[in-house]
Amino acid sequence: EAGVTQFPSHSVIEKGQTVTLRCDPISGHDNLYWYRRVMGKEIKFLLHFVKESKQDESGMPNNRFLAERTGGTYSTLKVQPAELEDSGVYFCASSRRGLGGYTFGSGTRLTVV
Amino acid sequence: AQSVTQLDSQVPVFEEAPVELRCNYSSSVSVYLFWYVQYPNQGLQLLLKYLSGSTLVKGINGFEAEFNKSQTSFHLRKPSVHISDTAEYFCAVSDSGYSTLTFGKGTMLLVSP
User: Fold this and answer.
1) How close is the nearest chain B Cα to the Cα of A55, in Å?
2) Binary contact (B45, A104; C-beta < 8 A)
3) Domain ranges in chain B?
């Protein structure tokens, strides 16, 4: 089966601009997650979708971040306006319901200058 | 709240030597434990997981980990490493198989000839 696909793989934007990251989960995976790793820090949870509904968005840092999951398929994470501290690697993951852990994508490296 | 401590940020080792990457966790509920690996320029790949049952868990690429509840540890081991094992390794904990993962800061395994 195809894996979790994220694009772009890299994005460099100026402070104040808007960036949209996209994640295509594995087909049939109801659970979709966003995580972020800021340089030198832990990978931190941002939010969790079950199908198109936000199950848990407790990790979203502030209201500059907006996540959507259209029709329970792909998801987008928009940062508007971007700040320097938003730089990092954004990971998406998906899973079926039940035990087993996630499948992660390769990540999007976001650099805000 | 859950937390994960990976005691070593870097572990240098010679090829064919054994290695142990340490992971300690804290949690007030039942835990599910995971080790992920990130090879250069790739996403996070699940190495192994402990959900229940035998405390010795075998994963891919010859890695294994032992869950020790009394010491709240889940150390990762490999009896003989290869150059290709050079990567960053992340320990993670969850209170279910598909809920939020709490990650450690990661351990960079550097294998040299």
Assistant:
1) 10
2) yes
3) 4-112
Distance separating alpha carbons of residues A3 and B42, to the nearest angstrom: 12
Residues on chain B bordering chain A, Cβ-to-Cβ distance under 8 angstroms: 4, 32, 34, 36, 41-46, 49, 51, 90, 92, 96-106
CB contact under 8 A, A100 and B49: yes
Q: How far is A45 from chain B (nearest CA, A)?
A: 7
Taking an 8 Å cut-off on Cβ atoms, the answer to whether B46 and A102 are in contact is yes
DSSP bridge partners of B19: B78
* Residue B93 neighbours by CB distance under 10 Å: 23
Q: Note down pLDDT in tens along chain B; length 113 residues.
A: 789 999 999 999 999 999 999 999 998 777 889 999 999 888 899 999 998 888 899 999 999 999 999 999 999 999 999 999 999 999 999 887 567 899 999 999 999 99
**Cα–Cα distance measured from residue B4 to residue B33, given in angstroms and rounded to the nearest whole number:** 10
Predicted pLDDT of residue A12:
97
Instruction: Determine whether the interchain pair A42/B44 forms a contact, defined as Cβ–Cβ distance below 8 Å.
Output: no
* Residues of chain B found within 8 Å of residue A32, distances taken between Cβ atoms: none
- Domain B4-112: give its CATH architecture: Sandwich (2.60)
- Give the pairing of strands A108-112 and A10-13: parallel
